[in-house]
Amino acid sequence: MIDVSPEFPVDESAIRIPYDQLKDFMTSVFKAVELPDADAEGVATAMADGDLLGKDSHGCIRVPMYVKRIKGGSINRTPEIRTIKQTPAMALVDGDNAMGHLVARYSMDLAMDMAAKSGIAWIGLQHSNHAGAAAVYASMALERDQIGIIACVGSANHAAPYGGSDILVGTNPIAVAIPAAEEPPVVIDMATTNSSLGKIMVKAMHGEPMPEGWVIDAMGEAITDSAEADNGILTHIGGAKGFGLSMVIGFLAGTLNGAAFGSDVIHIGEDPHSVTNTGQFIMAIDVGHFIDPGLFKGNVDRISREMTGSAKLPGVSEIRMPGTNSWRIYQDRKANGIPITKPLLQRLNAAADEVGVTGL
């Protein structure tokens, strides 16, 4: 088995579920709540792909929440995702309140096709929903020698303006995927807060504390009890710089597209009935329009090796490029299955029981 240090340390008692089995299980759950067969499989595939990448906070753990929202009427089961405005290098997509995974995949496919012709494409998304792991969509571009970018307005507000205490800001994540030749692709997938809410959800599910610095209370004091995170304020990466980046993403992914931002954002974990109008933007950059793709990827390899081969600080065993850990996790989980802990298995099977399908 490949030696990895996953985003969440794997519980040795966790069972390993093959990718196809997990995907098929989730497909059956979403069919049971009346998503069309193709849409149910599309959502399940995106979620299982997130789990393969080690994004345990944004994969199958979200099944119960999605079931609750679909049954609560906040999701359009039979949407018409459509492009409502388009030029050679931009488009605006109306997700018709579909599951966000479907809107994001539709939009990345559109962006890649447009970029192949124009060199670059920027797609704004409106009336979308939570779409799971952002890296899944950014990484779609890699097979076409393109650079993929996605940024999202968070699907609930958990942070405050820098220096404030009013909860008006989401985790507003961004993912970028850059192709390489022999080295792992360079991929970032990060919230603009010190932790995504999903990571905290995983810790709370397993009764684990949070590190100091992830969440504070209204007096600025650290909260480390993961079960109390919803009563606190998520902190921004880099302080004011992270807040600034979060604002820029919010305006570009939300306001520019006529989607929600600020106090208009609906908390998807607390309100299963209200439509969110979640906004995202997606970009694709076709490398071949700028430089020979082989030369570009060779240079990415060379620079990556330069970074990883550079001098290490005392006590540091390895310098890794962004995305290398997820790439290792992907290789391990593709070969050995996706680890499902006992608390997660219980939640998944409870959701299956609720909709009348066979559990894992």
CATH superfamily of the largest domain: Malate/L-lactate/L-sulpholactate dehydrogenase, NADPH binding domain
Number of domain modules: 2
Mind telling me the C-alpha Rg?
20 Å
* Top CATH class of the largest domain: Alpha Beta
Note the total helix count: 10
Uncertain segments are 1-8
Helix content: 25-40%
End-to-end Cα distance, whole Å, is 23 Å
Note the quaternary state here: single chain
Q: How would a textbook summarize the main sheet?
A: 7 strands, mixed
CATH fold annotation of the largest domain: Ribosomal Protein S8, Chain: A, domain 1
Order of helices and strands: EHHHEEHEHEEEEEHEEEHEHHEH
> What would you say the CATH architecture of the largest domain is?
2-Layer Sandwich
What structural category characterises the helix and strand content? alpha+beta
Portion in strands:
15-25%
Strand order of the largest sheet: 2-3-4-13-5-8-9
- For the secondary structure, the number of strands is 14
* Shape, per Cα inertia axes: globular
Average pLDDT over all residues:
96
